[in-house]
Amino acid sequence: MVWLLAIATGLIVANLYYAQTLIGPISATTGLDPGAAGLIVTLTQVGYCLGLLFIVPLGDLLENRRLIVTALLLTALALLAASFTSSARLFLFASLCIGIGSVAAQIVVPIAAHLSQPATRGKTVGKVMSGLMMGIMLARPLASLVTDAFGWHAIFVLSAITMAALALLLRARLPQRQPQSGMHYFALLGSLWHLLKTTPVLRRRAAYQACMFGAFSMFWTCVSLELTGPYFHLSQTGVALFALVGVAGAIASPIAGHRADQGKSRSTTTIALMLGTLAFALPLLIHSSRLVDLGVLVLTSIILDMGVSANLVTGQRALFALPAEIRSRLNGLYIALFFMGGAIGSSLGGWMYAAHGWTGVLWAGLCFPVIALGLYATE
Fold first, then answer.
1. Looking at residue 378, what DSSP letter applies?
2. Please, what sign has the CA dihedral across residues 62, 66, 71, 74?
């Protein structure tokens, strides 16, 4: 069941990232200008945030399996719409809807916590989240490879078919889980603000991860533009291979979860935030030949992905130690808050790259984990 949940979350969350390395070809087809190209990623993340705030809390109210299947079928429809349009407005609207539907992944994660024993909850959530991080990281190279072979529309058609098939599989295999909250929907939404006010660990963990995910989104939104630019001059296949190496960072998720189960959350958080800082410092400090610079960027992608993965799982382990009846809302708030950081990072990244080039992106990206370290120092 853990493997099924890990694969499912990876496949679902990948929908948020297919467009990240395809900004160039999508913009050319839909007529988006370079300054607005970051909206392709930003609106998907905005949709995800909206879904996290208004749909994921339903996991504490409605039968979870039915909620997941419905969200997946709606995602499949949005993916089909994106694949068949050449209109910028329609594509951006479809991107928003893809983000909203993909919150099904965050209804799956609390199920994993619910099914696991308290002593191994961090390790189990870490395994599921490693599947999620693998989905994020594999989405980019897969999108680039499919685009090279069949055009950018094909990846959206392929994902729509996958989401429909996954909906049928999860309907057959997932256990039913009917929460006993006794609340109506608007009371449930109203409780989100109360939870945010009364749960300091939620506010802190969300702030740390918002900074880390902002840096992550900025890097991966802009690095494809740099890699295909005049200095590195890589093809989409080259970008795919580059992104594929970054998958190595997913190994940090189960390790961080296991360390959190052992009571080592503080040291794990320190390591994660330091890795985020190191990732952006390396390419700023090391300048040499084209090959060396490319190697530094590869190392940067691995280190950054490790830091983001480790910090994410450590935060979720802390939240899932709280009562089961509020886990879906806590998880929804946590992911929504740090995805807002991701949306800021991706939109700021597009502007920084257009105005100040790759060096400007690196300096802006470095600020995010440094701010997180500053916040963490006050804990």
1. T
2. negative
Q: Can you tell me the distance from the alpha carbon of 166 to that of 147, in angstroms, rounded to the nearest whole number?
A: 23
List alpha helices for the chain, DSSP H: 2-13, 23-30, 39-54, 64-83, 88-101, 104-115, 121-150, 153-173, 185-198, 200-227, 236-245, 252-261, 265-285, 290-319, 327-376
C-alpha of 236 from chain center: 21
Question: How much is the pTM?
Answer: 0.78
CA distances from 369 to 162, 272, 373 (A): 35, 9, 6
The CATH-assigned architecture of domain 2-174+188-376 is Up-down Bundle (1.20)
Write out the chain's pLDDT in tens, 379 residues: 888 998 999 999 999 888 877 877 888 888 777 666 667 777 888 888 888 888 888 887 888 889 999 999 999 999 999 988 888 888 889 999 999 999 999 888 778 777 777 777 777 777 787 788 788 778 878 888 888 888 889 999 999 999 999 999 999 998 887 776 667 788 888 888 888 898 999 999 999 999 999 999 899 888 888 888 888 888 777 877 887 787 777 777 777 877 877 778 888 899 999 999 999 999 999 888 888 989 999 999 899 988 988 898 888 888 877 877 777 788 778 888 888 888 788 888 878 888 888 999 999 999 999 999 999 999 8
* Domain range list for the chain: 2-174+188-376
